Amino acid sequence: MPLSFDVRRxxxxxxxxxxxxxxxxxxxxxxxxxxxxxxxxxxxxxGRVWEAPPGANLLMTVLLRPxxxxxxxxxxAVALAGRDAASSVGxxxxxLKWPNDLVVDxxxxxxxxxxxxxxxxxxxxxxxxxxxxxxxxxxxxxxxVERDVVLAALLSSxxxxxxxxxxxxxxxxxxxxxxxxxxxxxxxxxxEVFEGMAADVDDAGRLLVETSVCLRTVAVGDVxxxx
Length: 227
Ligand code: BT5
Hints:
The chain is α+β, with helices and mostly antiparallel strands. It has four helices and twelve strands, in the order βαββαββββααβββββ. The structure holds biotinyl-5-AMP. The site of biotinyl-5-AMP (BT5) has 29 residues, from helix 1, strand 3, strand 6 and strand 7.
């Protein structure tokens, strides 16, 4: 049965991801969505800040329970839905940069996705998409675009990807991933940096990088496309 979304709106909240994760721990059903006009503590990965002025951008988190599937695929489904909505509503085409960015053709970031698990099957997947505002060096859809229209398109596309099934999501993520086939500089959380060729993304969402000496499997890290 197609998933129906239960959308809760907030004028101001600390972080839609924090709220959805708390609801997940309290037993909330898959499909719960939090949307905020403003976040006072919007988060990226690894404790970074996600910036957006009040009322300018799409800030939302959806609760998924991808039973049996890798949590990465929940992130992939939301990233694909974000890409679809950016294209259908904003006319902006973008690719997915490993692990969690939506980037326009010149590489500027349009959106970021943050997936967090409770260790018991729930995944809170948040997406921040620049609609009317972007920080220096990033991209946005443009001022005339309405956040609610982007949200509706994103949820509709997400429903489609969930219906299509996890193998289809995994395939589509690989196809949309602009990192695969590129030369990359990888920075690991412990500070180690190396370069290589991004060969593939495995079923758990890890990036496989061929260096001059071996094949490295990267689960968490930052990637820069080089050359
Ligand atoms: C991400 O992290 O890209 C994940 C962002 C997820 C944000 C959504 S908003 C709704 C939900 N609730 C939350 O609290 N979070 C989610 P990461 O790959 O770590 O990138 C973070 C970095 O992107 C920052 O350190 C900045 O350099 C940059 N950044 C911050 N705000 C940005 C923006 N609006 N557009 C582009 N880049 C931004």
